From TrEMBL:
Gene3D superfamilies the UniProt entry points to: Hypothetical protein af1432 (1.10.3210.10)
Xref: PANTHER family: METAL DEPENDENT PHOSPHOHYDROLASE (PTHR38659:SF1), METAL-DEPENDENT PHOSPHOHYDROLASE (PTHR38659)
Signal peptide range: none
Domain HD: 12-98
Provenance organism: Ignisphaera aggregans
Official protein name in the record: HDIG domain-containing protein
Domain of life: Archaea
Family matches, as NCBIfam families: HDIG (TIGR00277)
């Protein structure tokens, strides 16, 4: 992965999303290893697309074409709603959905940690995340609507925030 991603913050982000995807897969009874791998590799094209979100995810499919099954590639392409990729496979839709919510909650958790007194993840509590999520002036780059979609996967928001936070603290 480091061959494709030079920015250490992006590498850490991918590891955070991997960890959340693993925890979510375990909670939902899905394949932990595969979901984790998808989380780890989902932004592998970020340096190549130079923040051009219309290409993000599509270049990743080219990079990973010989490594992952088609529905996993579709999930990676489809996790970014700005590239207009239409997911055809139902399994890929569910995985992409899990990836989107994990991606956005990872960002919320990191930004929340950065405003804590000692800027440490250990200081963050689920109720703090919930409060920050409701504050529209906080972390404007975090798409709250995506995080709220967790309930479509059968989890309550509070449970997902706890799951995401615990998984990131375990890194």
């Amino acid at each position: 992965m480091k061959r494709y991603l030079e920015d250490e913050k992006m590498v850490k982000h991918c590891i955070a999303v991997e960890t959340i995807m693993r925890a979510l897969a375990k909670r939902l009874g899905e394949d932990i290893e595969l979901r984790g791998l998808i989380g780890l590799l989902h932004d592998i094209d970020y340096d190549y697309v130079s923040r051009n979100m219309s290409k993000h995810g599509l270049k990743a499919v080219n990079i990973l074409a010989n490594l992952l099954l088609e529905d996993f590639l579709e999930a990676i392409a489809g996790h970014n709603e700005y590239n207009n990729y239409v997911i055809k496979n139902e399994r890929a839709k569910i995985i992409a959905h899990a990836l989107r919510v994990s991606d956005h909650v990872a960002d919320l958790i990191v930004v929340t940690a950065l405003v804590m007194p000692h800027r440490r993840l250990e200081e963050v509590k689920p109720e703090t995340l919930l409060r920050k999520l409701k504050s529209k002036d906080f972390a404007k780059g975090v798409d709250r609507s995506r995080i709220l979609e967790i309930e479509e996967l059968g989890l309550k928001l509070e449970e997902f925030l706890q799951l995401g936070l615990n998984s990131m603290k375990s890194i």
